[in-house]
Write a structure and sequence with these properties.
Layout: E1 3-10, H1 14-21, H2 27-30, E2 40-42, E3 45-50, E4 53-59, E5 70-73, E6 79-82, E7 84-89, E8 92-100, H3 107-129, E9 131-136, E10 144-151, H4 157-170, H5 178-188, E11 194-201, E12 218-227, E13 236-244, H6 253-267, E14 273-275, H7 282-290
Helix pairs in contact: 4-5
């Protein structure tokens, strides 16, 4: 009998992942392979409609070890034990689901079950990594801007590259072409020391449920990098770029992106975030000051400057 461990890394704190994944009432939001309708309590079990018909689900008691094993009773009375764990991970949490080939299932059935679990875990990841934020954009005719904040993956390379190109073009800075940027971001977004946070219009969906690459409904992004430091166990973070499309400024989107970026830095163990700002960019300086950043050394009280040399 075959078995396989299917896992996904979620960029959120372990406790947050455990709480949501272990809440049977929220199964319909991500576990399409198990729950397609609202979960109801019946005799200490949760009864849900599933692609297989009405099933009963019983989770183990809450525990500090991240165990989310659950027993599913199928419509014909067959009981299936599903081992599931939420484990600490350097980037947040790792959800691991163990699949066993059921008696009577052939290899095709087993592979289909594995694919369904992988799809469900992908939905769980996207559900947890989204942070909705609402705001009103006044300068662009008063239209409301509702955005969802997500962590970019390689599929977003083209969209992020386009935003970066618009950013540099708006402020007359040298910029890679969108094609060059897409190629580079495709590689960068696969690295553990690079983080891109994207704001997308909430109406934007793709086959994966997220804003798709190159979609004009992506309205802003932040690019962060991480490097090792001898001063802490965790990395030192650097905010390289933060950009919001003009029509969606003054709506709280930039603040939401920055808040999510700070949360991600904390999840990765970072204890300090650096930002370089042009001295004559008064608006940016005020924005970062409002969010607790300072250009004064907290220990000595002296002003700080950034020096660079092109090579």
């Amino acid at each position: 009998m075959r078995s396989r461990h299917v896992s996904v890394v979620v960029h959120r704190p372990v406790d947050e992942v455990y709480d949501l994944a272990g809440d049977p009432t929220r199964l319909p939001e991500w576990a399409a392979g198990l729950a397609t309708g609202e979960a109801m309590i019946h005799d200490d079990e949760f009864v849900v409609e599933s692609p297989m018909g009405r099933v009963r689900v019983r989770f183990v008691d809450r525990n500090p070890l991240g165990v989310l094993d659950h027993e599913v009773t199928l419509p014909d009375g067959t009981r299936v034990h599903n081992p599931m764990r939420v484990l600490p991970h350097p980037a947040g949490a790792e959800v691991v689901f163990s699949i066993r080939q059921l008696e009577g299932d052939d290899d095709e059935d087993f592979e289909r079950d594995c694919a369904m679990v992988a799809a469900d875990l992908g939905r769980l990841k996207r559900l947890l990594e989204r942070s909705p934020v609402c705001g009103v954009t006044r300068p662009a005719g008063g239209e409301a801007t509702t955005a969802e904040i997500r962590i970019a993956s390689p599929v977003d390379a083209a969209g992020v590259a386009l935003l970066l190109h618009e950013f540099n073009t708006e402020f007359d800075c040298p910029s890679p072409t969108p094609a060059e940027g897409e190629r580079r971001f495709d590689a960068l977004l696969r690295r553990k020391d690079v983080l891109v946070v994207v704001a997308g219009r909430s109406s934007t969906t793709s086959a994966h449920g997220d804003g798709c690459a190159g979609d004009p409904e992506d309205i802003g992004f932040a690019l962060l990098t991480f490097r090792p430091t001898p001063y802490w166990d965790g990395p030192l973070a650097q905010l390289e770029d933060l950009y919001i499309r003009p029509a969606h400024r003054s709506a709280g989107v930039g603040s939401a992106i920055l808040d999510r970026a700070l949360a991600e830095v904390r999840v990765r163990g970072g204890e300090e975030l650096h930002i370089n700002v042009d001295s004559d960019d008064i608006d940016a300086r005020r924005f970062y000051a409002r969010h607790g950043f300072s250009d004064v050394d907290p220990d000595s009280g002296s002003g700080m400057r950034c020096y660079l040399r092109q090579l």
